[in-house]
């Protein structure tokens, strides 16, 4: 069958086939003359978090989830020391940053894993302004609380906003007696848990609109089944709906929302009650401003929006797509007086015009120069929930052939989703252009959808392309892109 893998791991893990290179100490690099250096330290460690009065034990950067914001200006030199106080190997991947390969944080591909008790220094230049985040690239550690936002400011930003709200979304499993590793084991043993009927449940084949990249559509979203795990809770900035994060602002102010989906297995619909939002960037790239009631955000995607805020108390709601438990994530925008809304609040905007991000149009400034591809490769997302097997181009990571590219080429990747689930496809170290020209580093692919993505091979190294459903990635839905 089309979705089947020709080779499968027995354990679902990719370790068997992981490249076994060793790297030693991080390769050193120095800031150039006049380059500003931004230093930070992050301790990955076991932590007890308070979720609306419930104490949960997990792993975090420091003492909170999300971990501390790392912020710099485009062109700055970052020097971030990771202190691994976890009882496990870890790394940090700087999601979306076009950084030098050796700082990309992929064990076995760009560095050795950082052992318990060890430190590792990440040094790199962050060339592009935008909204990013970081997380380990080891196993399913992202689904603990090991994630934090990263903002790269634009030195040329004309001050388009008065206030900023960084909004980090998460699906919460840990500290409930079940760790993400338990969840992965269970998925491999039993297959997915999303819908009682297995594949093609909620959403199914009906109402799909694959391939259409023009205009915005309303009505049934094209995602089909969009997650494997039922979560007990959803969080915004580490807080559940019953104890929401609050942004205060003054009526009439322009607020910039930087929304980051750090969840492992959940697509959300995001809406701000009482307001329409003007989407201005996605994954750090400017778009033609689009005013919407709500938008979908896949795992690993980022959307920036500008909102002129009204007077009152408004819920920012992130509703998990296709999940039947755990409620929703809610935060509050407070600009005036009023009672906080009920945690189950359903702003009308949620069912208004909901943007599918890949249908945004690029700003002229973020288009790739016109050029026809020098090389073309195919990338096929494959697999199934039962048995729980995911791969790319016929096999799980470690058994599939890396894609290759030569420096300087415009590479076209003909990407196809051969499965009945939605997958957020993420590329390291580069951004790609959709057929519309829209630049992204993470894009949702609906069931059976195909499109070509183009990238300029201007950042030599060995890079990952993978599904940002962290369970799919760990089960093998990854492939390397190597410069040759
Ligand atoms: Cu956030 Cu390899 O990904
Ligand atoms: Cu996936």
From TrEMBL:
Q: Is Oxidoreductase found in the keyword set?
A: yes
**Does Metal-binding count among this protein's keywords?**
yes
Classification via PROSITE patterns: MULTICOPPER_OXIDASE2 (PS00080), TAT (PS51318)
Q: Which Pfam families match?
A: Cu-oxidase (PF00394), Cu-oxidase_2 (PF07731), Cu-oxidase_3 (PF07732)
The protein's name: Multicopper oxidase family protein
Region annotated Disordered sits at: 10-30
SUPFAM superfamilies cross-referenced by the UniProt entry: Cupredoxins (SSF49503)
Residues in a coiled coil are none
InterPro entries for the chain: Cu-oxidase-like_N (IPR011707), Cu-oxidase_2nd (IPR001117), Cu-oxidase_C (IPR011706), Cu-oxidase_fam (IPR045087), Cu_oxidase_Cu_BS (IPR002355), Cupredoxin (IPR008972), CuRO_3_CopA (IPR034279), TAT_signal (IPR006311)
Per the database record, which ranges form the Plastocyanin-like domain?
A: 52-156, 234-335, 373-481
User: What CDD domains does this protein's entry cite?
Assistant: CuRO_1_CumA_like, CuRO_2_CopA_like_1, CuRO_3_CopA
User: Which UniProt keywords are given for this protein, alphabetically ordered?
Assistant: Copper, Metal-binding, Oxidoreductase, Signal
Extract the Gene3D superfamilies matched here: Cupredoxins - blue copper proteins
């Amino acid at each position: 069958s089309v979705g089947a893998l020709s080779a499968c791991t027995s354990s679902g893990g990719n370790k068997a086939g992981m490249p076994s290179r060793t790297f030693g100490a991080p390769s050193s690099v120095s800031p150039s003359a006049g380059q500003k250096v931004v230093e930070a330290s992050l301790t990955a460690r076991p932590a007890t978090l308070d979720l609306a009065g419930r104490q949960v034990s997990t792993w975090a950067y420091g003492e909170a989830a999300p971990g501390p914001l790392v912020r710099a200006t485009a062109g700055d030199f970052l020097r971030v020391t990771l202190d691994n106080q976890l009882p496990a190997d870890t790394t940090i991947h700087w999601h979306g940053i076009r950084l030098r390969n050796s700082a990309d944080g992929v064990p076995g591909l760009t560095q050795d894993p950082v052992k318990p008790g060890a430190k590792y220094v990440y040094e790199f230049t962050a060339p592009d302004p935008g909204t990013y985040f970081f997380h380990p690239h080891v196993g399913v550690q992202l689904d603990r609380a090991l994630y934090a936002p990263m903002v790269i400011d634009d030195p040329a930003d004309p001050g388009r906003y008065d206030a900023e709200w960084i909004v980090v979304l998460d699906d919460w499993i840990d500290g409930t007696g079940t760790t993400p590793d338990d969840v992965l084991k269970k998925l491999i043993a039993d297959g997915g848990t999303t819908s009682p009927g297995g594949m093609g449940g909620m959403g199914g084949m009906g109402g799909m609109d694959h391939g259409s990249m023009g205009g915005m559509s309303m009505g049934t979203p094209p995602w089909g089944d969009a997650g494997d795990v039922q979560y007990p809770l959803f969080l915004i900035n580490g807080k559940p709906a019953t104890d929401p994060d609050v942004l205060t602002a003054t009526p009439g102010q322009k607020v910039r929302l930087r929304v980051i989906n750090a969840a492992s297995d959940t697509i959300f619909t995001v809406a701000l009650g009482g307001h329409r939002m003007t989407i201005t960037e996605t994954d750090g790239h400017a778009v033609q401003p689009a005013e919407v009631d709500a938008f979908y955000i896949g795992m690993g995607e980022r959307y920036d929006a500008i909102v002129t805020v009204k007077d009152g108390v408004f819920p920012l709601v992130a509703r998990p797509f296709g999940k039947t438990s755990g409620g929703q994530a809610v935060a509050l925008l407070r600009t005036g007086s009023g009672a906080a809304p009920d945690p189950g609040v359903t702003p009308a905007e949620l069912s208004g015009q909901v943007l599918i991000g890949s249908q945004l149009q690029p700003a002229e400034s973020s288009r790739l120069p016109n050029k026809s591809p020098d090389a073309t490769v195919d990338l096929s997302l494959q697999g199934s929930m039962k048995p729980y097997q995911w791969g790319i181009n016929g096999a799980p990571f470690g058994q599939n052939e890396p894609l290759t590219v030569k420096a300087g080429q415009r590479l076209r990747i003909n990407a196809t989703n051969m499965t009945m689930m939605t997958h957020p496809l993420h590329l390291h170290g580069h951004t790609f252009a959709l057929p519309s020209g829209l630049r992204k580093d993470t894009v949702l692919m609906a069931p059976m959808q195909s499109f070509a993505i183009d990238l300029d091979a201007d950042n030599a190294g060995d890079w990952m392309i993978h599904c940002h459903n962290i369970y799919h990635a760990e089960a093998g839905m990854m492939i390397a892109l190597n410069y040759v």
